Amino acid sequence: MSELFDAVDALIASRSPLPPPAERKRLRQAHSLTLDEVAAALQVRRATVSGWEAGKTEPRPPERDAYARMLKQLAQLYPANAPVHPEETAVRATPAVPAAPAPTAVEPAQACTAPTGSAAEPANTALRPAARAAVPRPAVTSGPASGRPAGRKAAPSSTPAGGTDQRFENGPLAVVDVENGQVLAYCVGGLVLDVPAKSLPSLVDWTLAEAKLGQPKLSGPGKPADPLLVLTEAALEHYGLPVTLTQQERLAGRLPESHKVIKQLARADWRLTKRGFGPWARIYRPAQGSERSCVQLCIPSWNALDTRHWADAGQLPPADLTRLLGTYAVRVMTPRGSTAVTGLELMTALHPPTRATEPDADGKRHSEHNPGSLGKNPVDCAPCEAPDGHPVLADLPRFHQRTPAEVLVEEAYDWARPLTDAECLRPHLVGIDVNMAFAAGANGLTVGLGAPTRLKNAVFDPKLPGSWLVDLTHVDLSRVKVAKDKWVHLDAGLLPSPFTPKGERPEGPAWYATPTVAYAVELGYDVTPIEAYVRYDNGRYLDAWYNRLRDAYLATMADLGVHADLPPEEFLKAMEGYRQRDPQLAIVVSAIKATVKGGIGKLRERPRGEGWKPGQPWRALARPTWRPDIRAAVISRTRINMHRKIVKHAAFTGQYPVAILSDCAVYASDGPSPLDFLPYRDGKPLPGGFKLGVNPGLVKHEGTQSVLWGEGIREQFNAPELNLARYIKDGTVTDQDTGE
Question: Whole-angstrom distance between the N-terminal and C-terminal Cα of the chain?
């Protein structure tokens, strides 16, 4: 009899009355309940509750009775026609990484996203490790459960007035894993989707039709980012891909075309880009009008995530890897390859090469050049800007060594000198490092956008970007201007030359980028260029790029407890062990910094094998973003920024650096802290000198060693001018140079 009673109870429960879907959502929000809280109480997935509120699905026993009971109680507390206080209707924020809002093209700086999180949750909760059991998993989003067949493309949702693009409501990317035979897609914010796809082609179909992954465009004329799938080792095995590449495949950077999965993709009319199926693979079909069909794959076990920049990210559990990459994607952009590739792609995403015209007489729009961009076609560099082996130098003798009067050499500092007797009596060597130095060098910098124009007997114009052949041997660092009309006397023997990477004084005419020549004028000396290649089509192309990366860096550092408004003492304290506060966020910081340096370096990418021979073009030359002149200008300005601070510091304190490596300078000091030699008065730094802080261009403590340590390793290696800045961080002498 009890079985009959149970059957009757189940029958009644299956018909428990429920309010309309919109009312269900109103009642939940009125009580400030989140979808996650309701899902946890009913022991269902978050997306299941969302489906009930949207009217896509209806609850079944035994959850239906409990859900109806909850809604009935809420209806008694919040009648439909009763006024509700605005604070009571606010939905509590969840610790999810939000999708980045689409910025306007008018103000590129608005492309920068604010720190993730809300008033209800600290921003860095997006990267807190979460237990697998606590991750809500919604119902299958394709196949019979959704009422749509897998692989059929769903119509894109319109963007609501609030600005959230529901085409990408599940975030920019997903980590695909397999547990107990079930394929799961871990999305940002703790969402986990069941994936019905049995093959890689069907996974691509499902991603485009059902997964709602991607990212809004970063600029008005731009395009949304394609969804990114990160495949774990279990997912690789499930879809018939190798867990690791053979040595031959690693050297080739791809799977052979004969691989069965590549043939599956071809049979399904999917294509691969020229780089093939490698660690970062792009699978696409040709665009139909404005409709894009493209999915990118990231395969960590094939070394897609370089450990120099991503540390052990590739070894993280799926949920943690999703949070890490999701934070980077929201704050920078969806990764498009290495950090260097992504840095370059970010430039293009913020300044797309073309834009749509206004409608013509027939109402049609056409593609035109987007002002302020580099355009869609590459431009030739000046001969002096070309690296060795470039086609423009094909007529040179095979083993010709170009002199400074033939080639532009703008590189970061690598300079050191012996300590003076007075410096040897000081106990400490203290290193300070410029934060995001190359980003700061790009900020506000006018660079060429188009092709160069050659000028003979040019008159120098500091506002005109280009390369200048000029003799700067007359610039004497023993007497320079540090202000408009203020001359100071310095010990030139203790200073590096600002005009060469090694700090050596130039010996005759040489090619320099505009910031270097402008600095010679700033120091109080006239310049007379012999020849120049200038770019009349120019602009501040890198400003939006700098702004986005700066904001990403500052937001992530703030999550780690290092804020931009900290006084010097508190800043130094906050920087101590900041990486241990959240190791995953620390990886994001490293990746952001690598995106800056790699993006600038990629502007002059060299040949990468492929049978290249000197004098022949290589693949990178076909890119509009192959611009060695822009790279030279950024590095020139970064080096000059460092030298300007060194001169200001020397003029005010009489202290000189003993070593400089890129953005790190080492000083002999009476104490172990930067505050022991950096001049601060009433908490304010020397104007124009070094300032402690987290903002790009300010400095942090790189490391402290003893003077005895420095003299000891120089004696050990019989190198009086060994660059101590390379080893000041932890005192370990290695051959590796990260420049950080």
Answer: 77
